[in-house]
Amino acid sequence: MVNNAKPRSLVQIILPYVLFALVVIGLSLSTLYSYLFFHSLIEAVCVVVTLTVFALAWNSRKLLDNHYILFLGISFLSSAAFELVHMLAFKGYGIFPGDGANLPTQLWVAFRYVFSLSYLIAPAFCTRRLNAAATLTVFTLITALLFAAIFFGYFPDCYIEGEGLTPFKVISEYIIIVILLSALGLLFRKRNLFDRLVLRMLAFSIISAAVADAAFSQYQHVWGPANLVGHLCLFLSAVLIYWAIVVTGIERPMALIFRNLEKSEERFRLIAETSGDVIFQLDVAGKVVFCSHAVVQYGYSVTDVVGKDFSTYIADDDLEPAVSAFKRVIDGERINSLELRLLSADGTFSHVEINVAPLSVNDSIIGLQGISRDVTGRKQSEEQIKASLAEKEVMLREIHHRVKNNLQVISSLVSLQADSLTDDRIRQELNEVRDRIRSMALVHEKLYQSSNLQQLNFADYSASLLQYLWRSHGALAEKVRLNLVVAPVVLPIEAAVPCGLILNELAGNALKHAFPGNVGGEVTVGLDYDPANDAIRLRVHDNGVGLPSGLDWRQSSSLGLRLVQILAGQLHGTVATGTGSGSEFTVAFSLKGFQA
Asked: What is the C-alpha to C-alpha distance for residues 103 and 99, in angstroms, rounded to an integer?
């Protein structure tokens, strides 16, 4: 983080110490006039400091990152109450009956226990959230109970006239010293959570307080030199607390109130300065209020961009979706992967992918923040891939077209050869070969006409294939009615070719053998798809004479039936025959082994 603070002169550095020394000398000299006046000044300063710390902590409780300060501030309200009453109970004021030294000493011990224990507990709230209202309630109850114990005679005596400090008072001072030094150790364990200057001042304040308690354990009467030294150390402790919390909180709030925010800002700034992506913030009017250094990749400096409307850098064709997205984000929506074109300083356009989210303060949207990643290289690669795929698709479509044409030529040659023969048996066999070639050519024809070169609409293919078969069989098919019950199934090309050949064989056999003597009949072709098992069932049924009695069709010498079994094996399927009138063949196979 860049530090813009101006270096302080030697006079500015030395002056606070000189002023403090002069104040200490003045306070010490005031004892020559009146020790009560000296004591009242010290205690009044401490009361003012503790109340000021409480006011600052309480009013900034919703902003404080480190609740150590909040806990300490709330406890200081209780400390201020004890210290104020201690000052008013001091010998010479005559406010409380008896005007002895025991009451102010009891109040002092109660104050120091509350003060030291607060320092001991406070480090627990460096990283833990504090319920301020509940804490204030607890300290109020503790304060009330201690006051009641002192004024109703339940609190141990701390000073006896003519004898001096009681053992309870002396032991308490040593216990308080141990507590303060323990608090100092706990504070240093959390030192990474504090500004270094604040940490040093808090540490010296605790040490000064401990020295003060050590001095207060030694005096024999309230006017003694040990009491004087103790109060001067107490004054130093108060000044250090005031400087650590009040002055720092006002002059450098980021070092105290927003300590975690300052660290987060440093991390954010480091990320923003080193990221290759552009990190930006816009206000509700669309003006750029922050932009990371990565904007230089588009030929701009940060100062060129900040203060300008974001639309200045958007391509005209993308301006409408960009403005629409901006309004949606200001309304509270998050938008991811918004692709736009940015205008670079040299007039060229760059493709970017933007993620944006609303920027809120106290539940009010004050703008948006986002990250813009340059995807120009990726877009160029995508375009190259699309062009390559389009080129390959054209090539593959051309291949299907040429294969279809070649198969049609072969089919025509076979048909011409059959027409030239006088032997009916050979001519029939050649026609069967022609139909098989035609069934394969039709697959390539349909694929050539389709938008998807990997899959075939088998319902459309079946209708075309069977219409061709019926036409090619002429008189044999005139009195045979075709019933098509085909589901709209799409088959991968690896399954479509063998399935088409099977359909060609089974339907052709029905036309040739099921209706001897040119009698009429029906052939029903069904195709079902089971989505649960991703399975296909092809069924060809006729109401003709049926299979000859005693025929084992699996051992038949018919080439057509052998082809059906071979092709079903390629599909990893099964072939079954039905019972009843006529003949029925069912071929079932799964599509799980085929790539769509």
From this structure: 8
Please state, in angstroms and rounded to a whole number, the distance separating the CA atoms of residues 214 and 230: 8
DSSP 365: E
Nearest alpha-carbon partner for 471 in 505, 441, 509, 511:
511
Q: What SS3 string covers 379-411? A: HHHHHHHHHHHHHHHHHHHHHHHHHHHHHHHHH
Same domain, 295 and 356: yes
Instruction: Tell which wins on pLDDT, 196 or 424.
Output: 196
CA atoms within 13 A on the CB side of 87: 18
Encoded tokens for 259: 């300590």
As a whole number of angstroms, the distance between CA 350 and CA 362 comes to 36
How many helices, marked H, and strands, marked E, lie in the chain?
19, 14
**Position 503, amino acid:** L
Are residues 443 and 417 located together in one domain of the fold? yes
Contact 211/234 with Cβ under 8 angstroms?
A: no
Q: In this predicted structure, what is the pLDDT of residue 22?
A: 75
CA dihedral 424, 430, 433, 438 (to 10 degrees): -100
Last residue of a domain, one of 374, 403, 432: 374
**What CATH code is carried by the domain that includes residue 592?**
3.30.565.10
**How is residue 14 written in tokens?**
């030395």
Q: What DSSP letter does each residue of 125-163 carry, written as one string?
A: GSSS---HHHHHHHHHHHHHHHHHHHHTT-SPP-EETTT
Q: Does residue 5 fall inside a structural domain?
A: no
Of the chain, the percentage scoring pLDDT greater than 70 comes to 77
Residue 257 and residue 63 in contact, taking contact as beta carbons nearer than 8 Å: yes
Question: CATH number, domain at 67?
Answer: 1.20.1070
The count of other CB atoms within 10 Å of the CB of residue 14 is 11
Our count of domains for the chain comes to 4
**CATH number of the domain enclosing 312:** 3.30.450.20
555 and 480 in a common domain? yes
Q: Are residues 195 and 121 in the same domain?
A: yes
Domain assignment present for residue 3? The answer is: no
pLDDT tens readout for residues 195-236: 788 888 889 989 988 988 888 777 655 556 777 787 788 888
d(CA 193, CA 88): 38
316 and 306 fall within a common domain: yes
105 part of a folded domain: yes
d(CA 506, CA 423): 24
Separation between Cα atoms, residue 234 and residue 83, nearest integer Å: 12
pLDDT at 13: 64
Burial class (CB in 10 A: 0-12, 13-18, 19+), 71: buried
Do 463 and 440 share a domain, yes or no?
no
Cα Rg, the chain, nearest whole Å: 48
Q: Which of 338, 358, 374 is the last residue of a domain?
A: 374
Residue whose token pair is 């769509």: 596
Residue 434, in any domain of the structure: yes
- Containing domain of residue 323, as a range? 275-374
> CB of 304 within 8 A of CB of 313?
no
